[in-house]
Amino acid sequence: MAAETRISGTILMKVSLDSLNKYLSKKLTIGELTETLLKTEIEVEQVMSSNNFDKKIVIGQIKNITKHPNTDKLFLVKVDIAKDSLIDIICGAPNIKVGQKVPTALINAKLPDGLVIKKAEIRGKVSNGMLCSAQELKISDDHSGILILENNLPIGKKLSEIWPKSNQLDIKTPPNRWDYLSLIGLAREISVFSVKNDNKLRMPKINGLEYSQSENIKIRDKKLCPRFLSAKFKVNNKKQSPTWLVNYLESNDLRSINPVVDITNFVMLELGQPSHAYDIRKLEGKVGVRLAKKKEKFISLEGEKINLTKNDLVVVDKTTSVSLAGVIGSQKAEVDENTEEILLEVANFDKTHIRKSALRHGIRTESSTRFERSLPLALGPIAFERTTAHLKEICDGQIIDGPYNQLYAWPWVQHIGLSIRKAEKILGITLNEKEVIKGLQKLGFEVEHFSILKEARKHLGKPYKMGASFKTDGVEAFDCSYLIDYIYSLIGVMVGHTASQQYNFGKTVRLSNLKPGDILFRDGPWVEFKREDRQGVSHNAMYIGDGKIIHAMGYARNQKGKWEELPLKEQKVVVEPVEVMSKDPMFLGAKRMVDNLDDFITITVPWWRSDVKIPEDIIEEIIKLTDYDKLPDSLPQIDATDNSKSQTLLKIVELKKILAASGLTEVLTYSLVGKELIEKIGLKEKDHLELANPLTHEQQYLRTTLMASLINVAANNQDYDKKFAFFEISKLHLRSKQKNQQPDEHWAAGIVTYGKDSLLRLKGLIDYIADFYKLEFTAKPSQIGKSLIKSHSAKINLGDKKIGYFGQVDFATLNKFNLNDELSYGEIYLEPILNQETDIKAKQLPSYQMVKRDISIEVSINISWQQISEIIRSIDKISRYQFLNDYQDEQMIKEAKKALLFRIELNLGAKPTSAQIENTLNQVTAKLKSHLGEVKFR
Amino acid sequence: MNKDINGIKKRALDQINGAKDEGQLEKIRIKFLGKKSQLSKIITEIPSLDKQQKKLIGKIANQAKRQIENLIVQKNKNFINQKSYNLPTIDLTKPGAGVKYGHLHPITLVLDEIYQIFANLGFAIIDGPEIENDWYNFEALNLPVDHPARDMQDTFYLIEQQGSRPMIPRTHTSGMQVRFMEKNKPPFKIIVPGKVFRNENEDATHSWIFTQIEGLAVSENVSLADMKGTLLKIMQGLMGKNAEIRLRPSYFPYTEPSVEIDTLYKGKWLELAGAGMVHPQVLENSGVDSNKYRGFAFGLGAERIAIAKYGISDLRNLWRPKLEYLEQF
């Protein structure tokens, strides 16, 4: 049955303008409708205009796409337009793929704008038609590509035959609104917000039925199926569905199947309640609802075999399941044109079970999506009656058994009390209570100004019943605390069920300050409670002004002051002087439940608005009705928030800026990578956190380094220049050391230098970063990973902490990425750097000049500048020093030596003598010699 | 002697006038005015002359010296002036040498501006985890398991779990609302920028990874109007004084009332942010007393702003770097 048509998007829905207009007293144009919808949370994704397309526009299927030999921008497309008859079409759209069904305009076809398609030669190739975009077909203004049609459409069919006869909208509705999945629900909302004033909902007339309450359907778990309406009908299903019904279904994207099925689908579209019809001849024995047995088999009416689980709810007959409840029917009991008797099911199933079943078996249907949104219990009878009327009218349907109405839950009525002041504060505007009430009433809410006295007086004289509750007694009987609880629940204030809870809920008030609505408490006789259940508060009453109280009274003191149960007639809600409470020796005091009782309106939520539960939900309705443009543009009156927490992200932007200042380009790459990329740099995918449901294999793992992504960027940009450099700052995700914890996330900067001198250019950038932060990085040459050259890579340390690494990428790796020139990569972990406080203490420059000397030495190739600089630094007369140059001539290469030139500045006071200078220099040479072994001074 | 001096002076002035450059001029200066020059010698001899001669020769010699000096200074000035004219021709339209500024990514440019505007409004800028667990990403935000609202955000899951809780590359930055409120007492106002992930196919206007800026302000008296004013301020800061925003009703399980915010771009309304007043249940789930406090929250799309600000037409260009493309920024 089409109600069970599979749908892909769960919140997208197609509706026809004509069908919507049926339910409105003033018809809207498509423009008026989209304008109206802007005032609701219904989003229009697309407008599909109806159109009488030329017969020469047909549905084609793309069979082959090749590039046009003479231009990059066009493709040669082979399109199947009838059984295996291929035509050649030249097309430039970027979105076409083999297998797609597309609108194909054949030669001589006339497009809606009047253009006639001719055979054409484009750059030496012949085109025998045109693939059309939505804009070219004048159905929307989307011209981003060819209109891709649904894949189940028949090849060669005329577009005009499948195209909606009515203007159609694709709408997206929020999942809290079950009623938006029904045309009446949509029309009800639209009527209120309609750009045409006084637009009214035209609700179809529905005749009530007399139901039997007996258990026609055996329902095992009544929580999962709180309502089941059913009846057996005699039907004539050999008839054709009337044209209006077929049009109604088709214009709202459903197919006509047979009258019985069409009627259930019609009611579902109209009212939002899915229902199901079973062919009685095919059912064996009594029908029931239960959870499936483990591995129970089920064959859907699409013929799909499904292995049920213990959590699937099913409708069964004596032998097998006959539908996956609320999701899809079975082949076994399918209604067809020969069906003469049906069992009609209009049920209410648990939303979560339906959703889980639909997801578990990958079958999301029109029906399951509606149940998922939680249908109100009150909907069932309306849908049942509407279905019954149409069965009678269209296929001579007659009830031969039933109707039955099995109801196992209380149809809850939601009361909300709203303080207008609170609404004003939350919205930031002034409200007019009368207008608020009028607006909410238009939406179907029952609203009135709250008068606690009026509410209380309504119940005067009603019988007292110990332990009364809404569920058992509605508003027909009360005990003392239930009366208070009920009245305050009207404004959404939950004061608690027992007198004791209510005592604890309220704020103490003096008797001299009593206001109507305050509650007086006393202890008293404990009759039906065991001693341990006593909580010291046994009775309460509401003050109603003028020295009077109202309370539900079952006991009173007799003239001797003893507690006595009153005669049954006198056990009721009564008004008495306040002294009955306040002068009683067991009086406990008075409490105020709510401060601003005058400020409340009470709202009774209509049954179809099950989404409205709290005052904030009403406040949303108020602002929707008020117009958002009326909201002032104010700013929050909150002092600036401590910005010490802002430092990480601000400093990251700062670092990006200084890297850009040094000539680097910032890139951003995907945070998820594939196995192939991971392995290219010698890492193993098992060391990476993996997605359970990746979109593609290239986006399956979280990154432990930016290296692979960035080398890949270099490879994709080789034609940019001979030399370039770029960086990315992103987070890395490492598996937590403790199992099953959130991953360790680190900010990292990855830097790539490509082309000549890449490694020293990279080292320069690392030094630059260290200089910027006034930090001292030390490079510790070592083997890093599997893709950097051992002799050309080093760890970067800050003190003893490793904060990164850099090195030249080995040639094997370059090869894997098809890189033509050398590349170096460095990665710095940012948290240790960004969290470091830089502490600058300015030194006064001496008034005299330093003695500058350039020193040239020849040492073993293994001596590092770092070793030399540490020695120089340890000499306290040297105030500054500077690396100038290093080089090797052929002789030095042979001897594994290198020459180094550096400058030192000696701080020897104002006018050093040449002896002093000589002396210090000797000290330097001696120290270098003693630490470095063989040193030649030049 | 008088004659000698005049002779020296004449030769000196001739030679100075004939000098070709500063070097020659310096040689001439040494020759005629140096310590060993004839004129210097004459001047040193002056004290030994008789009184009348002393006066006459002294005057003539010093005059000659001054004239020579002046001409040298004059000439030198000419040479220095001339130097600037003698420089070789240069094409000043060709690119300069040495420094070159790089390029920040457009998303960084947007974030940088946003940080500054929000910092000026007194918002703190907070970082949060990109991998969230189910509680923070969904449940604490009124999105229980099996709630159809979860369909609004197609979600990636990690294979590993945190205990029994699924771990999720966050689908939005809203989870940080809860984390921040758990640890910080109102009032406060913060933004939480960061990457978010959705299990959706990408195209020119949708990416499975994008950048969201969460906003959250909680106090005893913030209002929906404050939220509107804040977002208008932000858009004016980003797009100029004439920026316009529009509010539409919307639904998010974690805000009530909820709105969608659009901004006018090229005559069309572009979806910019989802926002609303923090749902009281979310406040409670985060340990904030919903009777006392309320908050507004929004989720702003950085890519959306980049589209409006820079006219970016294909979001894939932001995540698949081409240096040629990025050097525009």
Give the structure's gist in a few sentences.
The complex is a heterodimer of chains A (938) and B (329). Helices cover 25% and strands 27% of the residues of chain A. Chain A is α+β, with helices and mostly antiparallel strands and 938 residues long.
Provide an overview of this structure.
The complex is a heterodimer of chains A (938) and B (329). Chain A has 938 residues and is of the alpha+beta class. In chain A, 25% of the residues lie in helices and 27% in strands. Chain A is built from 26 helices and 45 strands. In chain A, a hairpin with a 5-residue loop joins strand 28 (555-557) and strand 29. In chain A, helix 6 (259-271) runs antiparallel to helix 9. The longest helix of chain A is centred in the last third of the chain and has 19 residues, at 914-932. Chain A starts with 11 loop residues before the first strand and ends with a strand. Chain B is α+β, with helices and mostly antiparallel strands. Helix content of chain B is 42%, strand content 22%. Chain B has helices at residues 2-18, 22-33, 38-45, 51-85, 106-120, 134-137, 175-183, 224-239, 280-285, 302-310, 316-319, 323-326; strands spanning 124-125, 131-133, 161-162, 165-169, 188-197, 209-219, 245-252, 255-265, 268-278, 294-301. In chain B, strands 1-5-6-10-9-8-7 form a seven-stranded mixed beta sheet. In chain B, a hairpin with a 2-residue loop joins strand 8 and strand 9 (268-278). In chain B, helix 2 packs antiparallel against helix 4, helix 5 (106-120) packs across helix 8 and helix 5 packs across helix 10. The mean pLDDT of chain B is 91. Classes of the chains: A alpha+beta (938), B alpha+beta (329).
